[in-house]
Amino acid sequence: MFEGSNKPMVDYHVHCDYSVDAGGSVAEFAEQALEKGLKEICFTTHCDLDPLRRHHDGRVRLRGDIVEVTSDWLGSYVEEVRKSSDAFKGRGLAVRCGLEIGFTPGIEGMIEPVLSAFDFDFILGGVHTLDGVDIVSARESTDYFSQKSPREVCEVYYHDLGEAIRSGLFDCIAHLDIYKRCGLDFYGEPLNVAHRGLVEPLLEEMVGRGLSLEINSGGLREGLRWPFPSPDILKAARDAGLADITTGSDAHKPDQVGYGLEACSDSARDAGFDRIVVFERRSRQEIPLRQAYG
Ligand SMILES: [Zn+2]
Ligand SMILES: [Zn+2]
Predict the structure, then answer these.
(1) Which domain range does residue 223 map to?
(2) How far is the CA of 61 from the centre of ligand 1 (A)?
(3) What is the whole-number distance in angstroms between the Cα of residue 46 and the centre of ligand 1?
(4) What CATH number does residue 89 fall under?
(5) What is the CA(46)–ligand 2 centre distance, in A?
(6) Are strands 122-126 and 94-102 parallel, antiparallel or unpaired?
(7) Burial of 183 (0-12, 13-18, 19+ CB in 10 A)
(8) Is 161 contained in some domain?
């Protein structure tokens, strides 16, 4: 299926309109993916279960209505993605069904039943909030950052990420240094080195637990220099023995599907990675990077 091509072929981080911050149906995303020559996409709609954030993030869109994340919507989501999966299979596009779960320590017991209720292909775990504050939101993060040094932000962030890694709930860690998205504007250059000594042990734990690492081009749309994570963190991941990466655009609209994936593959290659992984029913398959990205 994956034959050499100069085009990016795999987008493993896509938000359709079940995510309240995204627009476009599953079928519209799949159509765009096909048009752009992709061979495989995985839908990873937001699933944010933190009760402390219920009024901010705990909502999803179901048939045009905004409903609570704890209500009965996942069946419709999975069914819609599976329907597209069947429809697009014959047209040369594999469509997978996943989730991006916003992780906060303490909500493991809320995540488990979601994962066991459905046959997902891929579960992405990401930290977006620290101490109940959305640090990926320009509106919320400024107040939080103004009370903390870059190092203090990283200490909290990597502590929570460590819990995510050790939870055993996830196949892959999303956008590992996402705190830079708003944090670089606030702190500037010191934030680029504030992870040193904190990230390395976590990368080793990811290797020990067989977790894969996402290279995410979402920040490029907002003017960041590199995909997440930055080249030095990718290098540290290789040094730790991590081999399995996924590539994702974090598309929130159909026309963003596949965006920036060449930069993800360049980052991967520069750091010494030679394969990506894709997932079906949460079991992984390796694809040589040169085959997936020409
Ligand atoms: Zn995310
Ligand atoms: Zn996302």
Answers:
(1) 10-125+213-293
(2) 17
(3) 8
(4) 3.20.20.140
(5) 7
(6) parallel
(7) buried
(8) no
